[in-house]
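User: Working on a comparison across species. This one is Amino acid carrier protein from Hyphomonas adhaerens MHS-3. Can you predict its structure so I can line it up against the others?
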Amino acid sequence: MESIIRALNEFVWGPPMLVLLLGTGLYLTVGLRLLSVLKIPFALRQLFKKPDQHEEGDVTPFAALMTALSSTIGTGNIAGVAAAIAIGGPGAVFWMWITAIVGTATKYSEGVLAVRFREIDHQGRHVGGPMYYIKNGMGKKWIWLGGTFATLGILASWGTGASIQSNSIADALNATYNIPPLVSAIVLAGAAAGVILGGIKRIAHVASRLVPVMAISYLAGGLLVISLHLDAVPSALSMIFSGAFGFDSAGTGISIGLLMLAMQKGVARGIFSNEAGQGSAPIAHAAAKIQDPVDQGLVAMLGTIIDTLIVCTITALVILTSGVLGPECIPTAANAADILASGQPAGCDTGAPLTVAAFDAGLTGIGEHIVAIGLTVFGFTTILGWSYYGERCAEYLFGEKSILPFRISWIVVTFFGAAALMFEGSVANIVNLFWLVSDTLTGMMAAPNLVGLVFLSPVVFAMTKAHFDAVRTGQPKPRYPIIDQRKEAPEE
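Assistant: Here's the predicted structure for Amino acid carrier protein from Hyphomonas adhaerens MHS-3:
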């Protein structure tokens, strides 16, 4: 079974899916005429704009972005970047940047469609996401595709969002502070219950405070380490750009194997980090208290910039300037093919241990605490963000009566995800297999969403043009109707 799932995972996250994700981002970037890059200053102004009292929605645009970021800033920014560098070489960082740049157009389009085709449920909540813009934008014959996304979303959320995050947190706390997994399980489940039972408003409230504080703290620690090795920054940037195009550090010229290795790992880690195209973030943006979909699309695209271009870059520079990545651990033309085939570096640290070593090189005795606390807080906010994603998917499939049972199931899965560390042998193997299944399902979520994005891209282009034409001429911005389920027959 593990062999079958591993093969499926390699296909889902293999070159075809990465090309599809990157290709969709490039298509949207060109179709939007580089709007997602040129309008960043405009987007920053929208982020902190106070919503009008007549705006439709449940939370502020800022809170919606923090909820989306709560599920993206996490292990991918700390352990994922280190793995990309250790396996793909420093050049992988460049391809992470490229993925983020084209990913801004994807995130913008997801935000626009999420608000344009959202609904108001019978309890007055604003709900949306890929399943809703597929159903309301593409027509009833595509409802099955929205249902497919929602099904995958529930399954992936239990894995990626609940069990894996709580397991990682418990593991980090046990390794660093010797906290028993059972204690972590009880505390995490209790804390999660206290937040998610309050719905999107409480989740957004907590995320709006935890995410900025933790992100700024992590960035401050990273910048301090970089400042201690400031003279190594030019060399680090040189390694990134030369490695990105396959230049062998041994001076033997360009290697196609090195180029492919850097590109594959950089693109894969970049997409894993910012989730552009996966379809999870628009579920949060649909709840924004905003009338114009384009305004929220502009806010949504900032998530990719913050997540990858800022947080991931700081982690990368900490690793590359600290000196912990020795020449023997940088891929060369001679071993690139073997690493590409095996997916493993030879005898070198990777993932979180590499990031810990890099922080400790500059802040001895403190670095491990920065990483452990960062993984804990980012992991917990991911639990909160993904609980909302899974809840909306459950409501789409089974109606509002499924919300409370789903929240209870979330608390239970969070508990057992952390408590599983107490066991060894077959139970531990099952947990590892569950990680693989969850990663596969998370990747599969992207397919229905990408179909919706490409199919509805003319709508995004037209709405964008209408919005900026109105801004330029001083005319009122277009207004779009919202499907209000409260006007329909109530649920039985």
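For your comparison, note: Strands lie at 119-120, 126-127, 483-484.

User: Helpful, thanks.
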